[in-house]
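Input set for joint prediction.
Command: fold jointly, output tokens.
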Amino acid sequence: MTATSAFSAGQNAGPGWIDHACWLAGDVLLLLGWLGGGEDEELEAWLKADVGMIPLELRALAYTRADTPPGGLGAVLVARLPAGTTELGALVLRAGEEMLSPGPAELSEALVEVDVIAESLASLGAEVADELAELLASVPASLGTFEPAELERSVGLLLARLQERPTEASGARSRERRALSAERLLAVDDRAFHVAGWVHDEAAELTRLTAISPEGLRAELLERVFRYRRPDIEQFYALGSDGRRQKPGFFAFFTLEESASLEGWTLEAEDAAGAVLTAEFPAAERDPIATRDAIISDLTYAGPRDEALMFELVHPAIERLLRKTRHGAELEAVVQYGDPVKDPDVSIVVPLYRRVDLLEHQLAQLADDPVIRGAELVYVLDSPELADRIEGLAEALHELYRLPFRLAILTENVGFAEANNLGASLARGRLLLFLNSDVVPANPAWLEALSAFYDLKPHIGALAPKLLFEDDSLQHAGIYFRRAAGAPFWENAHYYKGLHRSLPDANVTRPVAAVTAACLMIDHDLFERVGGFRGIYVQGDYEDTDLCLRLREDGLENWYLPEVELYHLEGQSYPSELRRIMSRYNAWLHTRTWSERIEALVENGYPAP
Amino acid sequence: MPKVLYVLHNHPDVRPGGAETYALELYEFMRDYGEFEPILLSRTGPPHSAVERYHEGTLVTMVNGDPNQYFFYTDKNDYDWLNGTSFSKATFTRFFRDFLRALRPDVVHFQHTLFLGYDIVRETRNTLPDASIVYTLHEYMPICHRNGQMVRVGSDDPCLESSPRRCHECFPNISPQSFFLRKRFISSHLALVDRFLAPSKFLRERYVDWGIPRHKVTYEDYGRLRTMGLVPPGDADEERPRNRLGFFGQFNYFKGVAVLLKAMALLAEEGSDVHLWLHGANLELQSDEFRDEFSELLDAAAGSVTLVGRYERRELAQLMANVDWVIVPSIWWENSPLVIQEAFLCRRPVICSDIGGMAEKVGHGVNGLHFRTGDPEALAKAIGEAVHTPDLWKRLRAGIPDVYSMEEHVAALTQLYRELGDRRLETSSA
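tokens >
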């Protein structure tokens, strides 16, 4: 460690300096240095700003340093800077009587990356290292930050470094490093868990990796982990190509015989040299949506070759999560507005998710259609947080539009498939029409045209009309399956999407491989018989083709009826990495079930256009 | 009816522009002509339009209710300016391909491939092996990385020869090897074009020099709608000094506005009684440096210049009727400046730079005057001559030729499309 400079500032200046500074997160700064001053003095810190001195939230550790003048303290400080601090201004540090005021230039010079600081910290000596580890581990929870993920990562790296123990091999001390990090614990339920972390061992091969519950239940993970590359870890350890092949990242899904609690899990790793590393897991994440998203976001580390393998591994966890959500969902309330239609021929089922304003738009456009009045209208609210709002709204809308409808409110968000299934279970019509909330009619007499066609067509499974974007271009004209050359999964695609509604090829009434669930008519009994929509897909997608392929298994055909048109106001979804991976997962799962059938379809009669 | 697909880099609805307006007029006229059914596909998205794509799962959206006009959204951040290609190949291999397969044109006629990429030609050939591919060359972008202007960086001298070394001299941070590869890349895709159209002979020669086989480039000027040239009758009857000048075009550096304003300042110094009306747009898109110079020069020209600003196409005839001479002071070669055709349609003689497409289209002493390119003094002198020589204006007016009409143009294009179609039939059955 070298001192940058000894300087004084102001009347109360004493000796002292900053060796290194490092950003642990956007608003959390770690400082390593030396302050003149007594041993038991409390350390304080301020940020010098225009408005005056702002005291900083601080966690600090003082210790004796061998390489400094007597009477003074080595100090490691972790400070949280105020919100909106974009530049590192002047700081003031105080230990008792002594003050140190490093200015922006000095601090900039002292700034290093986390791996350099890690080196400095690791050479502090075992006792200090332990105290420091304790301090750092407490920082995320006790100090807070605007960038929790970043802070966790930096702290994790420092902790791993501090916990390394040098190895001895046949008398010579070698600097082979080992580290273990238990990053995440997700509870699918109280017996099924998904864990993720990383392990780095330069000395020997890993022989054991065990997750241990607070009750002492053990899950051996080595055989079941998926290992993947972690560029951040590789960079931290400055690994060459040899090291990179080790693939530090891992995740695994496992189930226990008995239930376990969710806090206090530890992770153990043992290598062939007999060294044992331990790490503590944070408390388990329980929220099913957060859990699902966390599992999926781990998959961002997958390269294209790993994809299928990773999906295969997370599939049990995801499946279990989805099943749990489905079974846990209940109807909180079912409210009937107006007199229920007697013996309806058609029941229209509309899932509502995240937007309730669409309810009014649909009612306004359905209210004057006499055929709709003769149909049963069932809305299913799949966003429980909007329950209060929609109940008030529904009553007011019914008063105005006088259209009878039923509103079912779910206790939890169950997803597209289950929401529709529940709506269908409440419906009494002979025919079901599944309708998205952002679908509105283009012309009158659409519903009777659909039912008439459906009733006349033998061996029909599902029926869908032409759907248009708001500019009269095609949003849906039948679904086909496509696969780019060399790609592992089949994807769904809409014929001629974006082209004008009058395109001749899009105006041929014909059987198609599949149709969209945005506006899908199907016989009620048939729907129940084949099992309804399957809720195995993540966040909506492929449920419709999955249903349509099951109908084909039954010897039925799915039809496209372009003479009936409605608008489907589908906008550009905001693509996030998470959404992209969810789509890939769905495509993988769908392909896993249906690849043979799809290949046969594509070869016989339903090729890509 | 066979189909022709026109591919543009911008739709005039989104951002006005000469070449794109011509393309839309061509589309409309071709539609009425009734021999080929035209389809129009215009690239859009930032920076031309304010919005990015807004429909899921497709890059294609409607322009308006016309079932044959489409936008094609691309991300400008995906565009490789040096080589003229998109980093996102799926744009072609999936979305453009789907479009071609759905509409199955017999002819694909590229007007511009900016923001799309030259390799869109290859995708077209791959997907529609029997279609004819026509490519109109509007400027020199395949040849020159400096915006297709062929003007050397630094000296602003017009350039006649591209080479890895010379291009590297203009762009020291791009290696000669990169320029070599650029040319190879572009050529490999353009080699799949069946016929290039050159609106000026000058431009044709530049491309032949660059390496396109002569038999593949046909000289074919822009066809213009006669209706835009209807000036009020009797505009030539007034006996008065013909000292009213007009500039019509973008206020950018290469259009030579600075040269013109300096000439006006010189004329103002002399006490000349000429007046200039500046019609145009896009000043706000230019560099700060240019905008500053522009304002300074405008001030220096004192009361002899009126900045009219933007104009609608339908106003053009009236605005031209208001001036006697149209000035085209571009400092680059130009191709076939639409404004020259417009001036001739409105029976205005043209004073222009003495190079390239301008010098080709305007005859010095026949229907206009040339001046030494980039030289404000020479321009001031030419203007002085124009204004003060008795009867010169009338004589030059009389020398104005008929402008190539859209009817003739569409007839020629239709003929070309048929020829190319027949030829492909021959070669494929051979």
